[in-house]
Design brief:
The complex is a heterotetramer, with two copies of chain A and two copies of chain B.
Chain A (H helix, E strand, L loop, with lengths): L49 H26 L13 H9 L6 E3 L5 H6 L4 H4 L13 H4 L11 H14 L6 E6 L6 H13 L3 E7 L2 E2 L2 E2 L20 E5 L3 H16 L5 E6 L18 H8 L3 H11 L5 H23 L19 H19 L1
Parallel strand pairs in A: 1-2, 2-3, 3-7, 6-7
Antiparallel strand pairs in A: 4-5
Helix pairs in contact in A: 1-2, 1-10, 1-11, 2-8, 6-7
Chain B lengths: L10 H15 L3 E5 L15 H5 L4 E3 L4 H13 L3 E5 L10 H8 L2 H4 L9 E6 L14 H5 L5 E3 L4 H13 L4 E6 L24 E4 L4 E5 L4 H11 L6 E5 L2 E3 L3 H11 L2 E8 L4 H13 L8 E5 L10 H4 L3 H9 L6
Parallel strand pairs in B: 1-2, 1-3, 3-4, 4-6, 5-6, 8-9, 8-11, 11-12
Antiparallel strand pairs in B: 5-10, 7-9
Helix pairs in contact in B: 1-7, 3-4, 8-12, 9-10
The chains are: A alpha/beta, B alpha/beta.
Bound molecules: thiamine diphosphate (2 copies) and magnesium ion (2 copies).
The site of one magnesium ion has 6 residues of chain C, from β4.
Pfam family, one (chains B, D): Transketolase_C
EC number (chains B, D): 1.2.4.4
Cofactor (chains B, D): thiamine diphosphate
């Protein structure tokens, strides 16, 4: 038998392995756009939903004010540390607003604003960052996972939760947030792969703000865009202008809808910029130029929306003032409430380590109790 | 209730039966890991579960341990009770960050709002001729991590009972399965399983008066054999099976050592910084004036796990245990 | 100022962030072919190098025989375990032959054959699998990294080594092998990302043999092909018929050349099939049908090459016989040498834990010494 | 020789100087990690290195700890001497598999052919008000892993000397940097650094006769303060600084405890299964008949690291040390 006689020989010859692992060929549709998707300032803005946009605007203004207030609280010693999202408010707000009541948000350590925009009391959202216990709220009540300090580790959680909900027949989508730096972690890879294999109803939102602390994206990846990473998992990748709240909301809404209707996970890369330093403790001048920051100031998410809405008559001076007033009220309340020292009970150290305290913990608790009593007495 | 007629006789079968019974009783119990579905696991512990309960409840995952445990965290957040299989001891290491930074702390960091009832099954230890990375005794890492329970059976009955208790626990449990006892047998009748012992109770497996051997998992049979052999030397050794390293049942151990006045801790894990150090230190704290001699340890050497051809020299054996008992200052 | 007046407004409007992290747009060229590349049985075979092909043939025959002999040794208790590469010999041989003397091979736990084909003494290659010490050879002498049991962990090593060599100005390429299952591990992701960011001279060869033990590819990934994973790292992905040694060699040779000449890393997916069970201890009938195995038998790497070379007159009966004889000679020698019990010194347990033995280890060594002496005495 | 004129005065500066001097002397020394280049590290330990030696020798890596350590393994295989920075204790966990399965064993598994002279710098411990996951004392994991050296300085001088010794070591070293001592100061002159102490030598920091405090890293200043305070109670405490947990300088510790007859081990890490257990167990083995009381431990509680607002209750402090010393059966 010669090669020519082999069954099916020729350019397309291949034995017929079970379809389960035959290479698929529908690659191209997975490729993200080469340019970030935009709405504001483009013809697509004609279709804006005025109601939604007014809500976004109010939240953006409030979010900006929240960021300023939180940073001020670090200076007053009321917060141990604060990673600001000034410049990234469009992503934070869109992520919060796009979810239905029953959906879950998985924030990264930076995303207190998204949690607040979702309705969480800001004092609760900031519990960790003021040096109090880690999670100042019941994650199940708010369907907001604890802020994740270890980068990217929240992503597999989101996948598992979404998968579990689907197994139980519940209509729940999980939206997981991560930074550009976080995409380099193994957990990012494993989470996206699990999500795609399980077709779990998850949306991954990468906020590409250009830096992981001081490390610029060029040292983080050589990918054309982070959205291109979707290709390798067999999930769609979308690239969006992260300072354009209308665009981010639309892209996320599509992805959430896709997840909700059984279409599986989506990877969304939102291109944005962190205007403040990494945290109040960081010195951003060490790794970036003022010019770069100034260029991004021209592309401010709050101003972009304000201009568009004003130009289109969706927003007027009164609306702007109202938003600002509401933001000031929130900030004043936050300032005041954060000025009260939280009262922590040292004996709580031994609570919630296990469902039931072990003998060893009871002994250690007794020791601390005695120390505290002795201190109190003298 | 399940209708499977096979009568479990080995520890492997008892573990499988425990999984099956737990899944049958509680629809939130989900088994997941590499090869646990179609294949039934490389040790066949999960054999038949996918068939009986469907692939959605016994799931072959992609090959990624951090992903497996991380996904299990999310599932537990939603109210499921995942039972995760790590294929071998050393292959649990990629999941370490998820284990330490999340699994062990989630209850604590949410002030009790979000406990994670995850059972992590890890076949561990040597003695089966496994090549490199297949024979680690990794319990020291788990023991040093607050928020985890660490449980390990040494008998067929305990394998069933402790696994049921672990799955039922509202806390995360690292469930260490002694590989070389998988094929140990017992007359145990699976249809009338003994009452499930709670997690955290040690058991005196053999009463004695001269000294106490404290051990767990794969070293229990070795200690019992040593205790028999010791009778020739005139020593009547008590043998305590810890069954759970966290919580550590100090009271049972302390009561025994106060009775006998001498103690040797035996385990396969490396000695330096191993669980035996904690046990010895704690016994000394609580039994100081009852001790006739320092608490000694017989453990794996402080070396990476050796090749199969040399492992017998590394593992605590009867002779080494007896030699150590002999060093308990009997002449004093 | 209205939206229209914004600098550069319009479809392509975007502030000018530094090029370091501007999304790149040359995505399409990164996409791998949809069909695996083939040479044998296609017009491309006209350009075959007869010398190289005869060498490949001899190695394939020898490799097949090596696999059979090693599996036989497990039955005789001379090997503790053996993961066979029957059916995958084309990948193993091509990987070995494509490298230059100074290059490095990073095998996975399965790839003893690649090491042997590179010139390593098979007895040394099998040291680990017979239950002896892990690495029976000096990795630096042979430029073959230790077999990697923890899956995918060898990939970052290959990147680091290749990077180091380049930093030192040395002409060294690293070829790292991994299975389809291994691509799900976080280390795969981190290694490919580092390689692309550093433009390290590495070639990643994924042998997609359809299974990770019992788990089929469809449960491992939803990607169109594993080669598509290259896109997310900004590195080319190539898909090749892994049973076509000419095609695998050509694709790897291109990738090695690219790496050597500063073109950075490449991801190669070779589609192949493991004809034997996962190891001698595995029961493959539990998870796959005989039909599937039979289909792949029709696409056997040794026969594919033999037919092509015979048809083209590159190989004759004498050549076939000579290859078989050489393989038998190798097998007989291997059998005989593996029949001798290796002599291990128990005291070696304490060697090479540290450069210098610690006091604790000296003490433990003394204890074992005493035990051994006592045993020897009676 | 470097010509930088700044005179190091803090531990952070001494560490940076050690890196700089090592890089200047040995072109195979490469520093790598997250933010170590342009930023100089979040604690500024590597400040100036990228400028002085180029980004190729002080490299900002992608954000992936397993990748960092794994790449360092490959670099060491090729003959380089990587110094890896893990940004914080808990962020070293993703690299755990590389550490345990490769870094610690490569010399062993290649029968000495391929040692890995990698230094892994890990800022550790609490007391700086760091939020969750930024204050772990993770030494128990490293200590229980054969093949690793585990080193931790407590003074500015040692920070320099031990880091130089670690980088010079042909074995992998986990170099634990006590965060809260980064800003501790000393009159130390960087241009005439003291002789580099080898790895594995403990030091009696304060001579005393009543009892020995055994400690390391962040707890050394606390122990010295406690020893001063103890004078009021009539106790003259000896304080031993281990400096290296592996190898553990038993002889220095044993000699001290044999002299004083009493010992307390002090560290921040959780007590259960922590390094103090090994130290206590070992002291007891070797000093049994010299001990007037059991070796006690003052450690972090067996809980996940608490929030900054409560950490002072968790960390071993002077009062708790004195209370424990008081329990050393002085009346016997
Ligand atoms: C696993 C892990 N490694 C390191 C860190 C320390 N760290 C905190 S934030 C940060 C940078 C994160 O960058 P990116 O993911 O882009 O998010 P961004 O800060 O820009 O929101 C680093 C390295 C961490 N928190 N977790
Ligand atoms: C980190 C890790 N997890 C699990 C295992 C156990 N294991 C050994 S081989 C294997 C399957 C590997 O599949 P694949 O990567 O496709 O390689 P193949 O066996 O097909 O060559 C598994 C799960 C391992 N060796 N390492
Ligand atoms: Mg970022
Ligand atoms: Mg495979």
């Amino acid at each position: 038998m010669t090669v020519q006689e082999l069954p099916g020989a020729g350019a397309s010859y291949r034995p017929t392995p079970p379809p389960s692992w035959r290479p698929r060929t529908e690659a191209a549709p997975l490729l993200p756009d080469a340019e970030p998707y935009r709405v504001l300032g483009t013809p697509a803005a004609d279709k804006l939903d005025p109601e939604l946009m007014r809500r976004c605007y109010a939240e953006l203004v409030r979010g900006r004010r929240y960021n300023a207030q939180a940073t001020a609280l670090t200076r007053q010693g009321r917060l141990a540390v604060y990673p600001s999202t000034v410049g990234q408010e469009a992503c934070e707000i869109a992520a919060a607003l796009v979810l239905a009541e029953q959906d879950w948000l998985f924030p990264s350590y930076r995303d207190t604003l998204a949690a607040v925009a979702r309705g969480l009391d800001p004092v609760q959202a900031l519990t960790l960052l003021r040096g109090d216990w880690h999670t100042g709220y019941d994650p199940r009540e708010h369907r907001i996972a604890p802020l994740s300090t270890p980068l990217a580790t929240q992503l597999p959680h989101a996948v598992g939760l979404a998968h579990a909900a689907r197994l139980r027949g519940d209509d729940v989508v999980a939206l997981a947030m991560v930074g550009d730096g976080g995409t380099s972690e193994g957990d990012f890879h494993e989470a996206l792969n699990f999500a795609a294999v399980w077709q779990a109803p998850v949306v991954f939102l990468v906020q590409n703000n250009g830096f992981a602390i001081s490390v610029p994206l060029a040292k983080q990846t050589a990918a054309p865009t982070l959205a291109h990473k979707g290709v390798g998992y067999g999930m769609p990748g979308r690239l969006v202008d992260g300072n354009d709240v209308a665009a981010v909301h639309e892209v996320l809404a599509e992805a959430v809808h896709r997840a909700r209707t059984g279409g599986g996970p989506t990877l969304v890369e939102a291109i944005t910029y962190r205007m403040d330093a990494h945290t109040n403790a960081d010195d951003a001048t060490r790794y970036r130029d003022d010019d770069e920051v100034a260029a991004w100031k021209e592309h401010d998410p709050v101003e972009l929306l304000e201009r568009e809405l004003t130009a289109r008559g969706i927003l007027d001076e009164a609306g702007i003032e109202a938003a600002k007033d509401a933001a000031e009220t929130m900030a004043a309340a936050l300032r005041e409430r954060m000025n009260a020292d939280p009262v922590l009970d040292p004996m709580d150290l031994f609570a919630h380590v296990y469902a039931e305290q072990t003998g060893r913990l009871r002994e250690q608790a007794a020791m601390l109790r005695a120390e505290l009593d002795a201190e109190a007495q003298g | 209730m399940t209708t499977v007629a096979v009568k479990p006789a080995t520890m492997a079968q008892a573990l499988g039966r425990a999984l099956r019974d737990a899944m049958a009783e509680d629809p939130t119990v989900h088994v997941m890991g590499e090869d646990v579905g179609t294949l039934g696991g490389v040790f066949r512990i999960t054999d038949g579960l996918a068939k009986e309960f469907g692939e959605e409840r016994c799931t072959d995952t992609p090959l990624a341990e951090a992903g497996i445990l991380g996904a299990a965290v999310g599932m537990a957040m939603y109210g499921l009770r995942p039972v995760v299989e790590m294929q071998f001891d050393a292959f649990a290491y990629p999941a370490f960050e998820q284990l330490i930074s999340h699994v062990s702390r989630m209850r604590n960091r949410t002030r009790g709002a979000m406990p994670l009832p995850i059972t992590i099954r890890v076949p561990y230890g040597g003695g089966i001729g496994g090549v490199e990375h297949h024979s680690d005794s990794s319990e020291a890492y788990y023991v040093a991590t607050p928020g985890l329970h660490v449980v390990t059976p040494a008998t067929v009955e305990d394998a069933y009972g402790l696994l049921r208790a672990s799955i039922a626990s509202d806390d995360p449990v690292v469930f260490l399965e002694p590989k070389r006892l998988y094929w140990s047998k017992s007359e145990w009748n699976p249809d009338t399983p003994a009452a499930v012992p709670g997690i955290g109770k040690a058991l005196v497996r053999r009463a004695g008066t001269s000294a106490t051997l404290i051990t767990y998992g794969p070293s229990l049979p070795v200690c019992l054999e040593a205790a028999e052999a010791a009778r020739e030397e005139g020593w009547d050794l008590e043998v305590v099976d810890l069954r759970s390293l966290v919580p550590f049942d100090e009271d049972t151990v302390v009561a025994s050592v106060r009775r006998t006045g001498r103690a040797v801790v035996v385990h396969e894990a490396n000695g330096f910084g191993g669980p035996g150090a904690e046990i010895a230190a704690r016994i000394t704290e609580r039994c100081f004036h009852h001790l006739e001699a320092p608490v000694l340890r017989v453990t794996g050497f402080d070396i990476p796990y050796p090749p199969p051809m040399l492992e017998k020299h590394h593992l605590p054996g009867v002779d080494r245990i007896l030699d150590t008992v002999a060093r308990l200052q009997w002449e004093n």
